[in-house]
Amino acid sequence: MSEKNIVIIGGGQAASQVATSLRQKNFAGDISILSSEEYLPYQRPPLSKKYLSGELDSERLYLKPEKFYEDQNINVMLNSYVEEIDRSNSKLTFSKNNGEESTINYDNLVISTGTSPRLIPLDNPNLKGVHYLRSIKDVEGIKKSLIGAKSMVIIGGGYIGLEVAAVSKKLGLNVTVVEMANRILERVTSPIISSFYHSYHESNGVEIRTSTSVIGINGDLSVSSVETSSGIIEADIVVVGIGVLPCQDLAERAGIETNNGIVVNEFCISSDSNIF
Ligand SMILES: Cc1cc2nc3c(=O)[nH]c(=O)nc-3n(C[C@H](O)[C@H](O)[C@H](O)COP(=O)(O)OP(=O)(O)OC[C@H]3O[C@@H](n4cnc5c(N)ncnc54)[C@H](O)[C@@H]3O)c2cc1C
Q1: What is the pLDDT of residues 183-192, one digit of tens each?
Q2: How far does residue 12's CA lie from ligand 1's centre (Å)?
Q3: Atom 2 of ligand 1 has which residue's CA nearest to it?
């Protein structure tokens, strides 16, 4: 294999696995991972389960320990947000969390920027106590809001919403799940499975309101209630789990073909043959 310089954007499972697989296949060139997060690549599934409940600490979430990347000569650059891809010069511009800007060149680029939560429109976007759940940092925010909280509203009856509901109920909160569709897990399971989980969560004390849409989230500095099509529900904390959107803005701005994600062929090659 020729010794190229490969740069990977994103610090999730895909980024970590691409770097690992390259070394497993004896790729001997430079590999750099640029991640906007402050943690080494980690598993997200436990975030809404054992990490939220406090049974796991952040290091247990890591896909590989720091030593692995050192031993494999994989340069992991954390807190590095890629701002721009300059395809004509095969160069990236990225900023560190102190605002400092730098550039890095690539021979081949891997874009593994994943997804980000679909946001709910809010009159006051700075309202405290309204959370999304995608990262370790998000869970840290939720944990802080849980201190002293009595009631939680979860917007969205998908997997993440229901997992947060189960954990929060166990922590002693009054939990209401608001779902716009006529059943929970509507996009991912059959009516029979939805009905099973609906009964299961209700038997554990979670209130579920289906066919209910959110009209607004009320509060001055912090959230106080959620206004829905089936009435106002008190809430000290709101977790929104209404799906994700692909992080394709960076690729789009660089003129790489996108269509609800980056368009690739069967070899994961994008419309630019140097970019995967
Ligand atoms: C709470 C939760 C529970 C889940 N449970 C399950 C489950 O049980 N089963 C399952 O199969 N899947 C589950 N998933 C989904 C699974 O975690 C994702 O499919 C997986 O994380 C996708 O990995 P990825 O590397 O493609 O993207 P991501 O994990 O989204 O990682 C993308 C990374 O890129 C970084 N990034 C984005 N833009 C830039 C930029 N411009 N510059 C630098 N870095 C950037 C992001 O910060 C992030 O670190 C869950 C997800 C969550 C959030």
Answers
A1: 999 999 999 9
A2: 5
A3: 45
